[in-house]
Amino acid sequence: MLARGERVIAFDNLSRRGAVKNAEWLRAKYGTRFELIRADIRDFSAIADAARDADVIYHLAAQVAVTTSVTDPRTDFEINALGTFNALEATRASGRNPIFIFASTNKVYGGMEEVAVVEKASRYEYRDLHGGVSEQQPLDLHSPYGCSKGAADQYVRDYYRIYGLRTVVMRQSAIYGYRQFGEEDQGWLAWFIIAAVTGKPITIYGDGKQVRDMLFIDDLLDAYDAAVTRIDRTAGQVYNMGGGPTNTISVWTEFGPMLERLHRQNIPVGHGDWRPGDQKVCIYDISKAKRELNWEPKVSVGVGVEKLYDWVKENAELFR
Q1: Residue whose C-alpha is closest to residue 135's, from 24, 240, 9, 29
Q2: Per-residue three-class SS string for 205-248
Q3: Sheet holding 238-241, edge to edge
Q4: What does the CA dihedral 20, 22, 27, 32 come to, rounded to 10 degrees?
Q5: Please, are residues 289 and 219 in contact by the beta-carbon 8 Å criterion?
Q6: pLDDT number for residue 276
Q7: Which residues partner with 103 through β-bridges?
């Protein structure tokens, strides 16, 4: 957006590792068109002030880790559920009816235990859902994180129905790309690359055959743009936002060898128990997004992983 000449206000408490560095990079690159409000999504008056003149609001703020939500469910709720409520109320209070795009999560579908899964040599696969899981999959809010994000997801939907706000829910799969300061608890693919490059230990939770569909950041942002430009069609809608069946990889049994080829050496890993709510497979049916957004992913997993690896390698000092 800044590259297009738009003015952007970022509202962030900068608690995420790497957030300060990203904010400094944006300010240095784009000057006064980038404004940072350092405040917390739990502070309604602050978010209401920030949203007063907004045309489009992208609600990306969250507590993002399932493990953290289990150890501190109150903070998880206050950030994800109450924080989203605050953002919606700020949108409504502005009186401008700005477009509201919400970054939801595949975790709203829970473990999907009722969906039949088969185990193959290097991965798990759906037995019957060859096109992936659609938006018709029942919600099953597993873990405090799943509950808080699921509550937020439904609030965003309902503010369209009740108040007429132009809201769009993006139930995002595994997103990866440049300037992602991935951590062990969230952003797994970026974290594995960062750990490999900087020599930090990697732990695989479960057996490493868990499968995700991967969506490169450039493709996600194209979808956001499409949702905004087509808001007459997309308002009130929910979209599964992932790479789809053609952009899948297993967490380690397939990604590990790919990373070792790029890194040109073996990478030792440790192992831990399965984590709560961890789906053996999460592959999205993205046909609704393709149809209504006139969009589809362009960056394959192989190309995207190489792009991110090269960026981390070139910017390794940011992670030390």
Answers
A1: 240
A2: ECCCCCEEEEEEHHHHHHHHHHHHHCHHHHCCCEEEECCCCCCE
A3: 56-59, 99-105, 167-172, 238-241
A4: -100
A5: no
A6: 77
A7: 170
**Both structure tokens of 51:** 């949203």
| DSSP code, position 275 | P
Q: Around Cβ 136, how many Cβ atoms within 10 Å?
A: 8
Report yes or no: 240 and 108 within 8 Å, Cβ to Cβ. Answer: no
Q: Model confidence over 1-53: pLDDT tens digits?
A: 999 999 999 999 999 999 999 999 999 999 999 999 999 999 999 999 999 99
What residues have CB less than 8 Å from 198, skipping those under 6 apart? 316, 319, 320
172-185 b/e with 16+ CB inside 10 Å = b? bbbbbbebbbbbbe
Token pair recorded at residue 83: 């924080």
- Which of 99, 109, 107 minimizes the C-alpha distance to 135? 109
State pLDDT tens for residues 59-89. 999 999 988 999 999 999 999 999 999 999 9
Which residue among the candidates 109, 124, 126, 145 is catalytic per the annotation? 145
Q: Does residue 309 carry a catalytic annotation? A: no
Q: Residue 302: in which H helix or E strand, if any?
A: helix 301-314
At 220, give phi and psi (nearest 5°).
-60, -45
Q: Are 133 and 46 in contact (CB under 8 A)?
A: no
Structure confidence at residue 201 as a pLDDT band (50, 70, 90): very high
Residue 278 pLDDT level (bands cut at 50, 70, 90): confident
pLDDT at 111: 87
Q: For the chain, which domains are there? A: 39-319 (3.40.50.720)
